[in-house]
Amino acid sequence: xxxxxxxxxxxxxxxxxxxxxxxxxxxxxxxxxxxxxxxxxxxxxxxxxxxxxxxxxxxxxxxxxxxxxxxxxxxxxxxxxxxxxxxxxxxxxxxxxxxxxxxxxxxxxxxxxxxxxxxxxxxxxxxxxxxxxxxxxxxxxxxxxxxxxxxxxxxxxxxxxx
Length: 162
Fold this sequence. Notes:
With about 160 residues, this protein is an all-alpha fold. The protein is built from five helices and two strands; from the N terminus they run αααααββ. The chain has helices spanning about 10-15, 30-40, 45-55, 55-75, 80-115, and strands spanning about 140, 150. The protein starts with 7 loop residues before the first helix and ends in a 10-residue tail after the last strand.
């Protein structure tokens, strides 16, 4: 209990805040909305049990995570923060594709402007040329083992299909 004022949880639950209150270090009286939303989504009893099972040095991070998840659950009751993560992963994938297209366009423009590069109609294979530099293009690794039959993009950390 900080000073004479009860913590936000004791204030909301209308109980006396003691020195041993598990909520007081994490739900100060000047931030009542934090406990209110966590209580609404998870329940005070469940949050108390979770905090008691954790070592003291991890409780602050756990409370921050609970507040974040509770806010996400209020915005999206079905998916919570998983919905936000999925949305962001989709945005990253779209941006990676846009980047690859832009890099390809830049390479094509450079090839058109640089007369020292072999022309496409001179009978030589441009792709077999030893002086070609394709480092600016994204490289994809094909995996044909039985566990995964998807194209692995080195920019992605995980594949959604494996």
